[in-house]
Amino acid sequence: MRQNVGGIDRVVRIVLGAAILSLLFLTDSPNRWWALVGLVPLVTGVVAWCPAYLPFGVRSCRSA
Predict the structure, then answer these.
(1) What is d(CA 41, CA 16) in angstroms, rounded to the nearest whole number?
(2) How many distinct helices (H) and strands (E) make up the chain?
(3) Which residue blocks in 1-64 are alpha helix, DSSP H?
(4) pLDDT (tens digit, 9 = 90+) per residue, 3-62?
(5) I need a surface site. Which of 6, 27, 32, 64 has the fewest CB within 10 A?
(6) pLDDT band at 64 (very low <50, low <70, confident <90, very high)
(7) What is the pTM of this model?
(8) Are 14 and 45 in contact (CB under 8 A)?
(9) Where in the chain are the domains?
(10) CB 62: neighbour CB atoms within 10 A?
């Protein structure tokens, strides 16, 4: 599994994922479980690999 998510992209994904995930704890709405969607950008940012980039051949990191 080669990395396909670069530095700035990773930071943005981690910050946005954490912000969305924090809604799980900050709201009392019955729909607050939708905040778990924040796990997707958080995990893809941490592991530096995004499966959605594969079909399009997109890479936001430098070639090795």
Answers:
(1) 7
(2) 2, 0
(3) 7-26, 39-47
(4) 999 999 999 999 999 999 999 999 999 999 999 999 999 999 999 999 999 999 999 998
(5) 64
(6) low
(7) 0.89
(8) yes
(9) 7-56
(10) 8
